[in-house]
Amino acid sequence: MPEIADIAILAVALAAAGAVAGLLAGIFGIGGGAVLVPVFFQVFGLLGVDEAVRMHLSVGTSLAVIVPTSLRSFASHRARGAVDMDLLRTYLIAVPAGVLIAALVFASISSAGLRIVFAALAVLVGLKLIFGRKDWQIGADLPGVAGRFTAGSVIGFLSTLMGIGGGVLNNTFMTLYGRPIHQAVATSAGVGVLISVPGVLGAIWAGWGAGGLPVLSTGYVNWIAVAIIIPVTLSVAPLGVRIAHRLEKRQLELAFGVFMLVVALRFALSVWVG
Fold first, then answer.
1. Which residues pair with 222 in a beta bridge?
2. DSSP for residue 209
3. Quick one: a GO cellular component term (predicted)?
């Protein structure tokens, strides 16, 4: 049986992490792993979680947190008729296929390798937010079935390795092909469901029997973190939203872009310096 003291320390640390993640998510208008993974990585490190599994645990736990939030968000957006269901039906096999491939990679990639992947993608996202323009478009409408299937597979693969719900990548894909941002955001909620549900199962499978995990972990998912983070982030996020409404959209884009670059630098240094 795990020590009560160990559980209490973990719970307090994660509650603080959830408050930070919720505040940042509210300010930047983005939930999921883009904020949660770096926060988890820091907290699990402070708690002495083995370096070899810390990044994997951060990604897997983030995916578990995304499951209920993406389900709730998708139901809300679908009720308003904002979701592109045709695109989502194309993703129905493509996205989980990408998640499955990512789970196989996840089981064998090193902690350093996973951090490098997150850092590289974080740099791309950060640069896009800082230097991107609204008039950037590849085409007037989304590509055909083959192109959508390829995009869905890539989104599922990369998002799973980052521990994110796919919103950043799918929003970019849809807006580059002329779709309005509100429709992209609504559809991304459904993408989050297609990523997080098989993704968390893959994280459990990939980490089954791994050593050095904190108490009440199943594979690379820590259930104490999941149980604490969800209500804490939901309660703190409105404060971040109020802060966000005092800022211009461009200021938010620049702030989140800088945040992603700082996270990328942090992970890169953790690999190079140790």
1. 217
2. T
3. plasma membrane
